[in-house]
């Protein structure tokens, strides 16, 4: 089905393996580019909503939903095919990987926290004509968001580590 | 690095003729001959069979001979 859609959209068939390989490279590269452009468009749309209309428009909501669904589909596919898995050759290697995961989890949680606060502020600003959240609500949101993100990220990444020496 | 061009010319075939025998496009044969594309194992076997040789002869180079024969 996907091949037919590609042929119909770009009028290229990918008749043999070289063409298919090149086509896949081009499409995967452009998909990542469009993914970020979509996020850029989504944030631009939300900011414009905030400044001009003070409520979230249907167009922005559609962009948010598309970006989220796209992100979820890609992540599910990556996980389904085991591409997040890391193999540890021995106990020493395992400890090294765990230390790296700890660092990555802290770094990603900080980034997610900043992004989450930015998103929260943006939505609050956009909705300010109708409602403005209290400091307490903001703190509760941030604690829950950061806490859930940190724990799930850290646990998920540790679970992806395979102890290769136990696999006989 | 491969000897596809050498074997193809020995047979007196064009790139298109070889491509038709192995079921790919001429463009693919050209890319493989010029080392711009690494073919799959399946295609390597089909190429070797079409050219009447084996994978070792077609794709394996003893150390130091890569530059001389490609």
Automatic annotation (TrEMBL), chain B:
InterPro entries: Cro/C1-type_HTH, Lambda_DNA-bd_dom_sf
MF terms (GO), sorted A to Z: DNA binding
CDD domains: HTH_XRE
Domain HTH cro/C1-type per the UniProt entry, residue ranges: 4-58
Keywords on record: DNA-binding
Natural source organism: Schleiferilactobacillus harbinensis DSM 16991
Name recorded for this polypeptide: HTH cro/C1-type domain-containing protein
Pfam families: HTH_3
PROSITE patterns xrefs: HTH_CROC1
